[in-house]
Each structure stands twice: as structure tokens, then as C-alpha cells.
Amino acid sequence: MLTAKSKIGKVVIIRPGALGDVLAVRSVIRFLKDSFPGVNVTLIAPGERGRFLARDGWADRAFDYDRSAFAWLYTDGADDPPAPLAAAFAGSDVILAYQDFSDPAGQARFEARLDRLAPAAGKVYCPSRPTGHHREPIGEWLLNAATGFCRAYGLLSPYDFHGKNWADVKLCMDQPQAFPGLEQPYVVMHPGSGSGRKNWPVERFAALARLLLETEGSRAFRRLLVTSGEADSDLGERLVEAVPGALLLAGADLTCVAGVLAYARLYVGNDSGVSHLAGAVTTPTGGGPTVATLFGPSDAVVWSPPGALILDAGEDMRGIEADAAFRGISARIASESP
After folding, report:
1. pLDDT tens digit string along 283-294?
2. In 5, 71, 76, 114, which residue has its Cα 20 to 30 A from 154's Cα atom?
């Protein structure tokens, strides 16, 4: 176990979940990198989501949480850990585990396995999202667990944390790959999400897109790009068919999508991982999209990307019409114009 004034050389972060869940941990990674120069951060997250953050000085290494080797953490037995799992945790000083358990026995098994795997490491167990009466932005929730642990072990002074804004740190993206027909300035829309209950009707996305594309003057848009993933069914195709000249980006890797988002003038989407990605990216010059997110049944305080325009669509996602969304977006863009 760590003792007061110990140094942190390696931190392992366990963060299962969807894209938005994993992206939220960037606040913790930046906090660690800024506070402990030379620290090695290993991120265990599902598939491409973890690898995406293992870039440009963020996580130093990523392991795929969905690999069979990591099932060892959730089982009983005297068997030795698989080699990939042992490699991920080797030499760790701190383990930050952000996840939920359906029963105390399951959590006890998990903690016992971690103690066996890394007996000398300090360990923090934190629910994956705010619980009970807590209503904090997800990035701050994850960050508070990490800073609380460090302070408890004398690893930070109050000055170290004061005034920092790690929860809103951005991912810098290079120029997006060539996309035929994508003219600046363009708007990106993502009409899907991980749940149909959180989706604004496609017809209203289409109506909003037509209003944006018909706008004249300095705030005119030249093209609509629609993004779509495996969980979005035919929503992207339907939106593209409803808006003349719209382009579809379907099934692209995260780096490609992030690059397109970073150079967009505007992004509009539901409470989804792509919305979190839009809020997380910037260009080398500090630019990035205006982000507008439609919220209904989920809590915008917890899940909205920092700084995004929140459009309240009501519990059934029909509580805001396209023209009202257009007015809100137009006002936000006007306020951001020089």
C-alpha cells in the first residue's frame, strides 16, 4: 500500500462502458499527467475506445477490456492471471477502477483478484457514474475520486488542484482525411444514440438541417455531414435521404470521426458518445465545433459535454420543434462570432 509522500510511477485505469463513458476519463488522465511528471498511465477500456485515448501523450498504453484475459478479474479460483493481464498491471502504484457491480459478492471477488494481481498498489473503487443525490458532470465525478485518493496519501497540496480545469481538456486532432464533397463551413449531425428513448425524431433533425443550410450571410452552412454507427440502425440513411446534398459517414474509425468533428462549424446530436467526442475535440489552432445536444430522459447536468448548448427535448424527445432548436443554435453561434 502507498504511504504518505510516496511517488506515483504507474497508474492503471479500468474504465468499461460506451464511448462517452471512456472519453470522460480524459480528465483523470490529464490530471495525472500534469500532477505527476513522468507517470505512466495504462488504460483498460473496450476495444477502439481505449486505443483512441492512447495517442498524443494521453494514455501510454491501452489494453482491450473485452479480451478474454480480463475475465479472470471477475472469477474465483487459484489459477494464475493470464499473461496479458499480468503485463497490464505489472509495477502499478495506483489502480483506479471505475465500474458498477450488481452485487456485493461480485465486487468482493473483483477486489480480491486485484489484491492478488497487484498487492502493493493503492486502489480506488468508484461507481461509473454519479449515484444517489449526486449530480456532477461525469468528468468531474471521475476526477474527484482520483484527487481524493491522492490527497488522502499526501500526494497533492490544495494549490496543486486549485484553478485547474482538467474536466474540459481537449483532444487535438489533425486535418481530417479527404472527404469528397465536404465543403467548409459544414455541420455534422448524429441522429442516433445507444437508446431509442434518447433520440430526437429524424424528421426534426432533417427540418433543422434544412433551416441551417438555407441560412444566408456569414452564418451560412455549405454542407451537412451525417455520422452513423452500428447502434444507429438506419437513422443516418434516413436523414441523408431527407436533406438534399447531405453526405453520410458510416462505420468510420474514431480518429476519422474525431477529425471531421474537430473541423466542423457546428455539431448537433442526442445524448450519445459521438456528442461527447464532438465536445472533446479541437484543432491545433484551438478551433472546434459549436456543440448542441438534445436531452430528454437522461440528465444533462451529468452527461452533457462541457460547454455544450443544451436543447431540452422533453421526456419523450418531442418537446422541442426544429424551429426552436434553430433559434437557440443561431443565438449561440452569433454569441461566439467575433
Report:
1. 999 999 999 999
2. 114
Q: Which helix (H) or strand (E) holds 237?
A: helix 235-242
CA–CA distances in Å: residue 140 to residues 24, 26, 33, 129, 168: 9, 10, 16, 10, 9
Instruction: Provide φ and ψ at 43, rounded to 5°.
Output: -110, 125
Average pLDDT, the chain: 90
Q: Please state, in angstroms and rounded to a whole number, the distance separating the CA atoms of residues 49 and 22.
A: 7
**What is the CA angle 168-98-196, rounded to 5?**
75
Q: Which three cell numbers stand for residue 81?
A: 492471471
Residue type, 282: T
The closest of 12, 48, 16, 17 to 29, measured between CA atoms, is 12
Instruction: Give phi and psi for 168, each to the nearest 5.
Output: -115, 20
pLDDT of 219 reads 63
Bridge partners (DSSP) of residue 123 are 95
Taking Cα atoms as reference points, which of 305, 35, 294 lies closest to residue 167? 305
pTM passes above 0.90: yes
- CB neighbours of residue 157 within 10 Å: 9
